[in-house]
Amino acid sequence: MANLPLSAKDHSLKKVRRSGFQWSKLRRYSGTYLFLLPYILFMLAFGLGPGIYALLISFADFSSGVPRYFAAGAKNYLTVFKDQRFGFTFNNIGEFLLISVPVGIAVVVLLALLLHMQPGRVASTLRTLFFIPGAAAGPAVVLLIIFMLTPSVSPFGFLLKSLGLDSFNAIITPGSLAFIFLIMGFFVGAGMWIAIQYGALEGISSEVLEAATMDGCNEWQKALYIKLPLIQPYIIYQFILIFAGNVQLFVEPQLLGNQTYIKANVPLVWSPNQLAYSFAFDLGNFGASAALALVMLVIGLGASYLMVRWTGFFKIDD
What we know:
Order of helices and strands: HHHHHHHHHHHHHHH
Helix content: over 70%
Mean pLDDT: 82
Number of helices: 15
């Protein structure tokens, strides 16, 4: 290196320093990369991989019983859009989202605020009680709803009969399904979200709340003008996940449908996920099923993107 020109020496030294810096940086963050590795592998195996495969078979033709890739073109997407059940199922899920998302968020945030107003043993006990129902899975909740809304066996049967609801089918109707599914979803998921929102409230600086008290704010004023704005990112996060989860509704209408022993007054295909299931396993058209799944994916991603852009959820404050 002694015989090299000065500019070549500088270039070589810079190259050595850059490689040393990169190696040092890699060693410094090796633990971070190691913790990220399982998530990345699972995301590739169960998220990105199936998504790419669904995109592939959405253009495949299954008329011969085996997939002929890219033979169908856009036929599967046209089949989905022309199906008379497409508009019906998306209208149902749209009504369900309009009810479940705002009501679910509003009630959860209200309960979290009420608990935060009364700290102590009572709040801790109620948080635990709210969280316990989350241990019940969707099918178990469906069975519980059937039991509670069947007047002949329900502990509230006398009340249901006094309202003129003398049978299960008098309560479970196509018009009431969105509200029934709202009750099921809230029963299962509210406790977790109450704990999350309560944790967000606990993270608010006590000095800020004390200053508001000294300025004459009561508890409700602090909740409205101090607490709600500060936990807004958590509310947005809840919106995104509840929207993504509710648009995928499948288990509840499937178990309540006419194809089960329950014989409830529920359409055979009520939600888009059920329609995708019908395409795949009733009609054997896996290409149309994959196309519908991708349509739902685009809707979910689009709604999340618009919400993030509108609220600046990932914006870093200066």
